[in-house]
Amino acid sequence: MNRYDYIIAGCGAAGLQLAFAMSEDPHFRGKHILLLDAEEKKLNDRTWCWWEKGSGKWDHIITKSWNSADFMSNTLEKTIDLGEYNYKMLRSSDFYAFVKNKLSVLPMFEWRTGKVLEVLESDGCAAVVTSNGRYEASAVFNSIVDLKSEAKQSNHPWIHQHFVGWFIRTEKPVFDDSRFTMMDFRVEQKGNTRFMYVLPTSPTEALFEYTLFSADLLSHEEYEQGIRDYLQYAGIKSYEIVEKEAGVIPMTTHPFHRKNTPHVLHIGSAGGWTKASTGYTFYLSGVHSRRVCEFLREGKPLTSFHSRSRFGFYDAVVLDMLQRRNDVGAEFFTSVYRRNPIDRVLRFLNEESTLADEIKVILKAYPRRELMKSVGNTLM
Ligand SMILES: Cc1cc2nc3c(=O)[nH]c(=O)nc-3n(C[C@H](O)[C@H](O)[C@H](O)COP(=O)(O)OP(=O)(O)OC[C@H]3O[C@@H](n4cnc5c(N)ncnc54)[C@H](O)[C@@H]3O)c2cc1C
């Protein structure tokens, strides 16, 4: 049987969070839902982190959480108490295994491995063409997108969060794993926004990611040299590389939602669920997944799922500035972390802030001239 109520095409962060949200909502009991992915999703292909107030849905499978963070630049060295927030780290392999295991015992879900070739509207329903056949459903949730071709066609600001990370292990205890390094801008900027991100998971283990927010990618060796230099600078000479990861995450206000149709909703990065000014996607995918369930429960049209928010405007301003003046990122983030209490910053980044919070963050940010220019560019 090739006809389903719903199809989730692409079972990564967004697809599996949506499936999990459906599994918890009585409205979907008795529905027939197909989960499609090209891979079995058994590998640890990325590490997700996010901020969250108090306890959360994935607490029992996270690797580590921190309540304290370091922010560093040439003009600011600050240890920040995250207050009510925790920064949580989840290995993707633990997430895939847990969610797949939960869903596998529910008869409403069917998992098929295959390459998705096309997703289309078809006579009052949606169809997914794969390497193994064609499937139809009253709605398809699609997280598969060709980002390179979208970027080429876009006339919106589009840069990337790009990085290479090394999980290293040392023989002797050298890390303080009670706090992590959110951003260390003391690395040479070379005309870009470059920083080191460090997640110590024990006194002898940590993930070091050499990260840029910029348009152009580096050669793989340049990121790795950045990590080597930083480790040397930190006095860490003897270590073993246990695992590596790399990522290129879109930072853009490109209107991905315009591809939504009455029966196809784009989700995850493909749906514009990546926070444009930070690259964070995991937490917001949970928020949006619960909203998708609400939409289906209430019979609202999928074409009205996207709603314009003032956060899109703030993101566009920051991206415009970083695209025009990639060298001012260190100054900008330093001003945000220096001049605001951390709970205001985290509320702002999680899109949970009030208008008063947002005005304060904006008015306190530098470089003011460049920001005002970007406000003008964005309003035009
Ligand atoms: C290394 C790395 C680290 C990251 N760290 C963070 C972080 O700390 N915090 C955060 O919020 N975000 C992070 N991100 C960004 C973002 O959260 C992830 O990219 C996230 O996985 C995006 O979710 P998604 O569902 O849109 O895409 P994905 O999780 O990539 O899911 C898409 C799925 O589609 C499948 N697929 C692709 N093409 C096809 C095809 N043709 N046919 C069938 N299946 C297909 C893939 O196998 C995949 O399972 C990170 C990204 C990377 C790469």
Tell me the layout of helices and strands.
Layout: E1 3-9, H1 13-24, E2 33-37, E3 47-53, E4 64-66, E5 68-72, E6 77-81, E7 85-91, H2 92-104, E8 109-113, E9 116-122, E10 125-130, E11 133-142, H3 147-153, E12 158-169, E13 180-184, E14 194-202, E15 205-214, H4 220-233, E16 240-252, E17 264-266, H5 282-297, H6 310-324, H7 329-339, H8 342-349, H9 355-363, H10 368-379
Parallel strand pairs: 1-2, 1-11, 2-8, 5-13, 11-17
Antiparallel strand pairs: 3-7, 4-7, 5-6, 9-10, 10-11, 12-15, 12-16, 13-14, 14-15
Helix pairs in contact: 1-2, 1-5, 6-10
The site of flavin-adenine dinucleotide (FAD) has 29 residues, from α1, β3 and β16.
Describe the structure.
With 380 residues, the chain is of the alpha/beta class. The chain folds into three domains: 3-47 and 90-150 and 254-304, 3-Layer(bba) Sandwich (FAD/NAD(P)-binding domain), CATH 3.50.50; 158-251, Alpha-Beta Plaits; 310-379. It is built from ten helices and 17 strands. The protein has helices spanning 13-24, 92-104, 147-153, 220-233, 282-297, 310-324, 329-339, 342-349, 355-363, 368-379; strands spanning 3-9, 33-37, 47-53, 64-66, 68-72, 77-81, 85-91, 109-113, 116-122, 125-130, 133-142, 158-169, 180-184, 194-202, 205-214, 240-252, 264-266. The strands form three sheets. Strands 1, 2, 8, 9, 10, 11 and 17 form a seven-stranded mixed beta sheet that branches. A seven-stranded mixed beta sheet has the order 6-5-13-14-15-12-16. A three-stranded antiparallel beta sheet has the order 3-7-4. Helix 1 (13-24) crosses helix 5 and helix 6 (310-324) packs across helix 10 (368-379). The longest helix is centred in the last third of the chain and has 16 residues, at 282-297. The N and C termini lie far apart (51 Å). The model has no long low-confidence stretch (mean pLDDT 96). It binds flavin-adenine dinucleotide. Residues 10-15, 37-39, 41, 46-50, 115-116, 143-144, 245, 247, 249, 268-270, 279-282 line the site of flavin-adenine dinucleotide. Flavin-adenine dinucleotide binds next to helix 1, strand 3 and strand 16.
